[in-house]
Amino acid sequence: MELPPRPKLFDFHGVSMTNYFTGNWDNVQNFQARPDDILIATYPKAGTTWVSYILDLLYFGQTAPERQRPIFEKVPFLELLIPLYPPGVEVLDKLTTSPRLIKSHLPVQLLPKSFWEQNCRIVYVARNAKDSAVSYFHFDRMNRTQPEPGVWNNFLQRFMDGKMVFGSWYDHVTGWWEKKQTHSKILYLFYEDMVEDTGREMDRLCSYLGLSPSADEKERVRGGVQFDNMKKNSMANYSTLSIMDFKISPFMRKGRLPHFSPIPLSLSVVPSSPLYVHHLFFAHYSLSLPISHSSGKVGDWKNHFTVAQNEQFDEDYKKKMKNTTLQFHTVV
Ligand code: A3P
Question: What is the 117 CA–ligand 1 centroid distance (Å)?
């Protein structure tokens, strides 16, 4: 099977995009939302699949045959137009389940207007900037429908410049945050809160959506969406999607990253990081050690950022985020 070519980034209404997300634009903009639709909106790599799977299990977990379909079919990606797969809009138009669960990475200003007209419920998930950047980097390495990521240092600079698919992380998270202040149908969640207490955040979701699962049902869903369970679940881990190369990096990264070390062995990694200790310990023994990854989900950036990158990022972050009340719950 021929794989799609890597796309180029271009400016699209002030947002960096590729043709895999703009190629169907008229149909995306004219998309007819239904009043009971639930939109899961995120900047890429914020935990979209996690929340999608939670909602899928809460709504349709009892329906046995339904569970045998991969999550990207059950929660279609609105603006997606990639070779080998039907366009997101087309899949959604044919979907008869109620509610429809819809995924989108569009910045708030580009969302089709029918979502606002129909007053749809929207769940937005945000993840801290540094972990988002790291996760996005590995995603672009393994996903052929994303632009070539290049080396980590340049990628990080592009992230800070907003030259990513779906544009600037800073504009995305703050744009949706500002919208939430005036629009009551947006539930704004944080990935870090979900890691800290998945059950509590599921309760918030349920109360927002008017769901009241039994204690047993809730526990069953909570178990099903735990990182390790989702990682080995082929219906939730994207392993059935041919455009992703798990030999380069898995969709859900945890444990050792194969064949990859973004930072040459040096003592310049963020001092509190496991990598720093790792470097100190092993510096005499090897010059080509792969990075030891075990921390997983929050704070993985410490395994990637050098001290200099971190300082530059923090300084830039303060400037870009100075006019918003949005605060992330972990040190970024
Ligand atoms: P990492 O790349 O840091 O591993 P998205 O679905 O928006 O593309 O986000 C993907 C990120 O969410 C990946 O981050 C993935 O591991 C993480 N993720 C997915 N399911 C998760 C879960 N059940 N618990 C914690 N993190 C999860």
Answer: 31
